[in-house]
Each structure stands twice: as C-alpha cells, then as structure tokens.
Specification:
By secondary structure, the protein is mainly β. It is 12% helix and 33% strand.
C-alpha cells in the first residue's frame, strides 16, 4: 500500500512521530509529501523543540516553522560539538569591577561599578512591564533599592542620564548592601549582605504603599550571597545561599499573606554521607538557579542548581526525601569557588557555571554529565566570571574587565553584536582564524572522566 493512499489526517498524525532528520528526508521524496511536511510537519516538530531565549523572543516568532526548526537543530548540534562564536561586548573597563547582568526580550543590561551612579550597583533584575522592556530594579551598596524606568534612547547612544523622575527609591534595607535580587511572577525578592530578605509586591498599588511602609522581612542572621524566588511551584518558595553551616535553605512563601516563613522548609546538604548528629562544616553558596528545561527530571520548579565555595555545582530535588544532592559537578582542573550558575543551552539541558579565577565558564549536559568542558572568556584574564545568563543558543557573561557572549547559533554576522571601538594597544583579544573577524580566540578544554562526585 502506498503511503500517499493514506488519508491526510493519518499522514499528519504520523508526522508528529518523526524526528527532524526523518521529516527532512520525507520532504525530499515527492511534491505531495514535501507540501505536507512544510504545512504541518515543521510546526509539529516545534512542540518538541522548546528552547527558551529572551534575546531571540521577538525575532524567532517571525521566522517560518522550518527556519525555527533549522536554527534550533543547528544550535543543538553546535553545543554537541562545542562550536561557537566567542565575542567581547565591549573593550576593557578601567579598574577591576564586579559586573552584573540582567536580560529581557529587548535588552541586555550590564551594571558595572558606579558607571550610572555615585554608589556601586550590587544587584540588578529586569521585571515585566507590559512589553516595553524598560523597567529594572537595582540594588546598591548603601542599601537603597530603586525601581528604574530606562529612558528612550537610540542605538549607539552613550551616557544617557537617568533623571530622578525615572527612579523610585525604596529604603527598607537600612543602609545594608543589597546582595541579590530575584523576580518571579509579580513579586521581587531582595537580600542584603547581612541576611535580611524582603518580599516586594510589584503590583502598582502595593509598590506605591511600599515607598512609605516596608514589605514583609525575615532575618537569616548570617552573611548572605544569593537568592532565588519561585512563585509558580505548588508550594511557592525562596531559596537562599549564605556563608554558614547551613548554606542552602528553602523558605516557604504563603500565597495569601505574601510573606516568607522565617523557619526553613528545607535545609539542603552538600553531601549524601552526612551524619545527622554531626554539624556540617561552614561553607558558602554563591549562586542559585532553576533546573534546565530539558533535565532528566523534566521542567520542574522543584529542582535547584547551586554553585558552592568548594568548586562544586550541586543539583537538589525538593521532591526527594533526602536533602542530599541528586547530582554534583566540578571542573577537575579548577576547584575554585563557583560565583554564578545558569541553566538552558543546547536542548535546554545544560548547566553553566562561572568560576572565581581565570575567567573560566564550565558547562555540563545533564543528559551526559560525565562529558563536561570549560572555556576561558575572551581576553583570558585572571578575573572571576561574576555573572552568567544562559539561553538556548547564547551564553552572556561578565568578568571584571568586560561583558562577553558565546553564540552557538548558525550564521552569526558582524552586525549581530555591537562593533567594538578600536583598541588602544594590545588588550589580549586575537581574532579566531577562519571566522572572518567575527569570533575571537578563546581557550577551551574537556574535563577528564569521571568528574561526577557524591559531594
């Protein structure tokens, strides 16, 4: 019986069970099947290619289903072969800074020192604002939190002032450095360096009230570094990374009162071989992220990925009875502290970690965790990687010297990213041969097996 003799609805159903390579082969057989694949096959295939990417969110929907499938498939293949364009996004800054990144569907924000203000920016988060993509919350070293509406500016504009009427200040952290900000739904979690956490309702009425009355606060009573808010879980929670003998804790959030419980819902451990009668040794957690969308556990908001002082990245499952990590990763050549973690990448299944020295970013695919690898940022300086943002085909990062990007997508062009000003002297950025002055040379290396641990 000929395949073409089957009813069209049966053929369309069969297309939903074919891999991308099979659809491509089928489209080459005859005009009828090519038309069927183009009309139904590629759009069906997109349902299995969920690739979150804020920087591409406004352009990808304009592509045809075939163009989207091709982009995602080639990007995934580039991740598998470790082929990418490495590019700095600026020339080196003056001095040694601790930059931070935030991203939305229109902009990548880079906060570095006191470039915008007289006080150092210590935390930054982009918040939803109805599609204008111009609203930020920024925390400062003197304890002030500001809601900032970025003024309109043309591409290439520099030194655009942010006048006072674009800023709304909040003063509920009592002059303590604001170490971390995290946004989920219509809530903002802020965390000071001394461990005081505030939960701010982002609705207009609540924000107006919060300028005069502080939001709900809890005190962790320890040096704090990182925070992650999740309001979409069945039990909403906030996870905190601190320096203590319980460096990673999870606190429940009550939906009705919008308040954080001062008592931890869970205390997550660093290892499985812990005697409950013994106290854990003090350590620190510097970065927290949610799970990769395509992790073996599924796209669950019950999975936490964290970066630790001992150089390990640990994965915890809040659904498990044990509070020990489900997986642990480390770069065996660099047991430096992990300052930042992010999840996404090829097939949505990667973890990226920024280390404390030599501008190293380490990657692991959770589907094959034994095959980790690392790469130095452009310039290969001794700096930590302070911040990372991982998308389907791009990693954005920042060292003390400059922001940078690794782009795994196909057909990266010179105009994809801002051009770099002419360098003054040698700033350690040689172009990579064969990349037509688009990509820059970086050093990468594979992790020797095994690098999985039970730590």
């Amino acid at each position: 019986m000929s395949l073409l003799a089957l009813p069209s609805d049966i053929l369309i159903l069969l297309l939903s069970h074919l891999a991308v390579a099979d659809l491509a082969a089928l489209s080459q057989t005859c005009h009828t099947l090519s038309t069927l694949v183009n009309r139904h096959g590629w759009s069906t295939a997109l349902h299995t290619l969920h690739r979150p990417s804020k920087s591409l969110a406004k352009s990808v929907p304009l592509w045809s289903p075939l163009e989207q499938v091709k982009y995602h498939t080639l990007s995934d293949r580039a991740w598998d072969t470790k082929r990418f364009v490495a590019r700095p996004l600026s020339r080196p800054w003056r001095g040694k800074l601790q930059p931070l990144l935030a991203i939305n569907e229109s902009r990548l924000f880079v906060a570095a020192g006191h470039t915008l203000y007289s006080n150092d920016i210590t935390s930054i988060a982009s918040v939803p604002d109805g599609g204008s993509d111009r609203t930020l919350f920024v925390g400062f070293d003197h304890g002030e939190l500001q809601r900032i509406y970025v003024p309109a500016c043309a591409p290439g504009d520099q030194d655009v002032p942010i006048e006072p009427h674009y800023r709304t200040p909040f003063h509920y952290h009592n002059a303590e450095l604001i170490e971390a900000l995290s946004v989920s739904g219509d809530s903002l979690l802020s965390l000071s360096s001394s461990g005081k956490a505030g939960l701010l309702d982002l609705s207009p009425r609540a924000l107006s009230a919060a300028t005069s009355a502080p939001p709900h606060m809890i005190d962790l009573d320890t040096r704090a570094w990182s925070a992650l808010l999740c309001t979409s879980a069945s039990t909403p929670y906030a996870a905190f990374g601190t320096s203590s003998d319980t460096p990673l804790t999870v606190h429940a959030l009550t939906r009705s009162a919008g308040a954080l419980s001062p008592t931890p819902l869970a205390v997550l451990r660093a290892s499985a071989d812990h005697d409950p009668c013994d106290a854990e040794r003090p350590t620190a957690v510097y970065g927290i992220a949610s799970a990769p969308p395509a992790s073996p556990w599924g796209a669950s908001d019950q999975i936490l990925v964290s970066g630790w002082f001992d150089g390990f990245v640990r994965v915890h499952d809040l659904r498990a009875a044990s509070r020990a990590p489900t997986l642990s990763f480390a770069d065996p050549w660099s047991f430096e502290p992990i300052y930042a973690v992010a999840c996404g990448g090829g097939a949505g299944a990667h973890i990226a970690a920024g280390s404390a020295r030599h501008s190293v970013v380490a990657f692991w695919d959770v589907r094959a965790p034994e095959r980790g690898w690392s790469v130095h940022a452009p310039g290969n300086d001794v700096s930590p990687v302070y911040s990372v943002v991982l998308e389907s085909s791009r990693l954005f990062g920042a060292t003390q010297s400059r922001p940078f990007v690794y782009d795994f997508g196909p057909a990266v062009q010179p105009e994809t990213y801002p051009s770099l000003p002419r360098a003054r002297g040698d700033d350690g950025l040689p172009y990579k041969k064969g990349w037509d002055r688009i990509g820059f040379y970086v050093t990468k290396y594979d992790h020797p097996s095994p690098q999985l641990g039970d730590h």
